[in-house]
């Protein structure tokens, strides 16, 4: 490609030659190459007398651009425009495109002889070639400027895979990735995604390969590269947000189902003991038994069942609203366990108690809430055991451990992480209950600075209530219910248990 200075000098020299050979005052206007289809020409450059140039500009405005559709040549009227004042307008046509307009003005009428026509045509051909070269140079400069300023990597390769042009972005990427990102067979059209490391972070490069076919049939391979790390991350964030929204929708749907199930269970569970009590009282009224011990037992058991259900519901409500008060006072945990076992053993002989083999100190807690924990855990074990449920109390250096073990079928692995969720009833759940017992027990244990844990196998399940045993002065602390039965313990709990 000729340099800009030499191309411009050649163009000006050709213009002077045609002006001298035609013995006319002359003006030349070259159209801007980027708008060949515009309604009026945008001037790329102009030569000649300023008065003549202004006349050429006015001519372009009146006659619109391009002047010669189809690129005709010769002295046809549509090509040569002669005005009454002896002016000649000559379009410059290159590859069927009007690239400029030459204006010749004569002081007197001229005879358009064959020799004069041939002379002007030769000069016009030379001028047209120079204008085409000039336009090509301008187009090349525009292209190179755009490519150089592009934020994308751009390269052009020949049929041997050699790079014939590359901007600075492509060269920078090539220094990191090697030749693999640009070595492609000409004619291929494909897209790839390539990872690379920059400043210790993985980034992603999108490569688009496509052929560039020149008019002479020569095929080059072009590649456009773009760093899509941010857009890829944004897309991943959008996908994650969509997954989160779907998960939230599923949770909302499950919550709706759980709400309906809860209402059904509450109605059933509260009505069952009431119906038993009402039936027993009706039997007493009808039969007038002298020794209604059996009836009193039914009434007592039903009343206890009703009390436990209502107690769990009230506890859940208070935990959710943050209004649950937990006392911090010395509690003889062995005594509480023995009394609880005694009450349950009167109704179910499968319950066994193993007395501690060492001294067990008092704990700082709420005796009523500890009994509620024990009732819920023991009741759960009796509901699922085959032959026995054992309760034992032990201690280590920092905590007291109350263990409730059963010989039931065990807890499925999929349910072990959810059995402490409120209203959750796992696979193979027994009839009865609202799924609150274990959730309430875990919440009350954590509210008193302890933990409730479970281990399970095919031979049965074992729940461990772990309580610190450093009693402090009586104190009331409030706790708030968190998602799925977890509790937020205040920072001052460490001071209470210290």
TrEMBL record:
Catalytic activity, reaction form: ATP + protein L-histidine = ADP + protein N-phospho-L-histidine
Annotated coiled-coil segments of the chain: 231-258
EC number: 2.7.13.3
UniProt keyword terms in alphabetical order: Coiled coil, Kinase, Phosphoprotein, Transferase, Two-component regulatory system
GO molecular function, one term: phosphorelay sensor kinase activity
Keyword Coiled coil appears in the UniProt entry: yes
EC class (word): transferase
Record flagged with keyword Hydrolase: no
Pfam short name (any one): HATPase_c
Residue ranges constituting the PAC domain according to the UniProt record: 186-240
CDD domains: HATPase, HisKA
Stored Gene3D superfamilies: 1.10.287.130, Histidine kinase-like ATPase, C-terminal domain (3.30.565.10)
The Histidine kinase domain, residue ranges: 265-471
Protein name: histidine kinase
Organism: Sulfobacillus acidophilus (strain ATCC 700253 / DSM 10332 / NAL)
